[in-house]
Design goal:
mainly alpha, Serine Threonine Protein Phosphatase 5, Tetratricopeptide repeat, Heat Shock Protein 90, 3 domains, 5 strands
């Protein structure tokens, strides 16, 4: 087998040992071993055990870096690259304290790989070249080969294909010498693609064939799907239409077996091109329409143009005209969007240039003032030379006055600082009072809703039941009160939900973690979602005002998960560092593209609340991969 499966007997043994571990440190070490064992077969289990390890291990234990590394790997495999980068850098910072240069260099490979995925190619290249200065002198050729492979990817993305081919060949030689088929299987198609991009099609075909042979030997369908896609593209470009069709159909079949949607739209597009070149116009139109299903806006525009070409070839002028209008409409929309982006970029450049010009003008004025100052000094020194005796007396007098002024200024600044601190404390006290008043008013409104309006709705429900019983049997079909009863029940449940949400902040008096667990239990029982709350290193309570603000933010995030994410699981993790509280809220829902979503009122409220307490937050999400929100709050 190419990929090692975990030793299930060892996993069971470790699980039993974990239950009876004598100390938190030992529990942390066993949890970390389980996280590594599960990495290749169950990523969620691997993540959960890595988190357990963090909760058990002491803050100074070097193994915390390994647990953070495992979490970084989980988020990397889930394509949540901001979260992956966060955990990898946390691990590297711990290793820097221990001066473990080898593990720092190894972690830098992971960090560079994340930067590649985020298109930060120059920064990634710098990290890998710096790593080579560590690995090459030590003859650590395996890690050097990993750096070569990543450098090849970066240079290929920057269209420097000669450099990319050079580094891929170096990596391939080492992987073959070491018998590392897993890495060879990745490097072969990468090298073939780089030859293809460099218009060396024969070499590209040669390496694709080698990659296909290796992937077939190990039955690696995921790699074969990518290889068949590339071979289809290669043969289409070479006008070998039969081969292009065969490879493209194979790639579609494998992707459907693997439940991979990515790339299928382009594959159908290619099949349409092949059919069009063979003058099989109905077949071409069928494939183009299939490609439309998951196509983005730009691909959709290209497909509309292709369908129009098919209709023209079939002399179907009416439909061709309609598609031409669709092409024009979508093209105008995309162009307008592009123009808006260009205008925004131009405005940004103008503002930047304006600020730079203002800085230059300010520097010019400062230089002019400096010249004037120098002239005044020369004049004063001239007077001093003529009136040395008088100046000495004046100088002593001036020093005495100056000293008093300095003291007065210092006293003024001290008093001013005291006033500022008093005002700041008064402002904080005012905010605390406002929050307390708000929470008190929330509790009162919640009680009114539950006790008054809720009880009245419950009474109304009873009246409806009684009224339904009194309706004669022959009129029950015509005069059904079931809709009214359902509306009354729904209204009563909604009032209870609103009352609970309004009053939830009152729970914060027992601590943020307790309030979150109470909220999670309530939601898990009333909604089709399971919410887990984890607290790591939360030894002491934090400021109550800050707890309320953070609770409201997390409550708003969880509400968004329930409303929009279609998630079945969510996790709230709180980790306390020396002077910072890190909060992670993640779900396994449908996810979204943050660049294409406008912030609504809820997220604006979250942003404003966090700005008021000096906190920072980021959103890491992509379609189909859930959502992770990271909040860092100073304590």
């Amino acid at each position: 087998m190419l990929f090692a499966q975990p030793d299930l007997a060892r996993v069971d043994s470790l699980t039993q040992v974990l239950e009876n571990a004598p100390s938190p440190t030992e529990k942390g070490r066993i949890s970390l071993a389980l996280a590594r064992a599960y990495q290749s077969v169950d990523l969620l289990q691997s993540r959960n055990y890595a988190r357990q390890a963090l909760s058990w291990l002491d803050s100074q234990d070097p193994l915390r870096a390994d647990a953070l590394d495992q979490l970084g790997r989980f988020y990397f495999y889930q394509t949540q690259f901001d979260s992956a980068l966060y955990y990898f850098r946390q691990a590297r910072d711990l290793l820097a304290l221990a001066q473990d240069t080898f593990r720092i260099a190894s972690l830098n490979i992971s960090i560079g790989s994340v930067l590649l995925q985020q298109s930060h190619y120059t920064e990634a290249i710098s990290i890998f070249i710096e790593n080579l200065k560590y690995f090459e002198p030590r003859q650590d050729m395996v890690n050097a080969a990993k750096c070569y492979s990543n450098l090849a990817t970066a240079f290929a993305q920057m269209s420097n294909f000669e450099k990319a081919i050079e580094y891929s060949r170096k990596a391939l030689t080492i992987f073959r010498q070491q018998g590392m088929d897993q890495f060879t299987m990745i490097t072969l198609p990468n090298l073939a693609t780089q030859f293809m991009q460099n218009d060396q099609l024969d070499s590209a075909n040669h390496y694709f064939q080698l990659a296909e042979t290796l992937a077939t030997r190990y039955g690696n369908k995921r790699s074969l799907a990518l290889i068949y896609t590339s071979l289809g593209d290669l043969n289409l470009e070479s006008e070998h239409l039969e081969l292009a069709r065969d490879y493209t159909l194979k790639s579609i079949q494998l992707k459907q077996e693997l439940n991979q949607a990515k790339g299928i739209s382009q594959a159908y597009h290619n099949l349409g091109l092949i059919a069009f070149k063979e003058q099989k116009y109905p077949e071409a139109r069928k494939y183009y329409l299939k490609a439309m299903t998951d196509a983005d806006s730009e691909s959709r525009l290209e497909l509309l143009k292709r369908i129009k070409e098919v209709l023209v070839a079939e002399s179907n002028w009416k439909e061709a005209t309609r598609y031409a209008e669709e092409v024009q409409k979508l093209g105008d929309s995309l162009q307008a969007e592009k123009n808006m982006k260009e205008i925004a970029a131009a405005v940004s450049q103008y503002e930047t240039a304006k600020k730079e010009n203002e800085i230059l003008q300010l520097k010019s004025k400062n230089q002019e003032l400096a010249i004037r100052h120098n002239r005044n000094q020369i004049f004063l020194w001239s007077i001093a030379a003529l009136c040395l005796g008088l100046l000495l007396l004046g100088y002593l007098t001036y020093k005495n006055i100056h000293r008093k002024r300095v003291i007065d200024r210092q006293n003024f600044k001290i008093n001013q600082q005291k006033m500022i601190e008093q005002l700041r404390q008064q402002e904080l006290d005012t905010i605390d009072n406002i929050i307390q008043i708000q929470e008190s008013e929330r509790s009162r409104i919640a009680a009114d809703l539950h006790d008054s309006l809720g009880s009245k709705l419950a009474t109304l429900n009873l009246y409806v039941d009684k009224l339904q019983e009194e309706v004669p049997e022959h009129m029950k079909k015509e005069l059904s009160l079931i809709p009214l009863k359902k509306l009354t029940n729904d209204t009563y449940q909604e009032v209870r939900q609103i009352s609970h949400n309004i009053n939830a902040g009152a729970q914060v008096k027992d601590g943020l973690l307790v309030a979150l667990q109470h909220m999670a239990n309530y939601i898990s029982h009333t909604n089709n979602i399971q919410i887990e709350v984890l607290g790591i290193d939360l030894d002491h309570r934090i400021d109550n005002t800050l707890e309320i603000q953070l609770f409201r933010v997390i409550q708003e995030l969880v509400t968004n998960v329930i409303k929009h994410a279609n998630a079945t699981e969510a996790t709230i993790q709180l980790t306390k560092h020396d002077s910072e509280l890190n909060i992670i809220v993640e779900d396994n829902g449908c996810g979204f593209d943050p660049d294409e979503i406008k912030f609504g009122l809820g997220l604006k409220n979250i942003e404003n609340r966090l700005a008021n307490i000096g906190a920072e937050f980021s959103i890491d999400s992509s379609p189909g991969h859930g959502t992770t929100v990271i909040i860092n709050t100073p304590l």
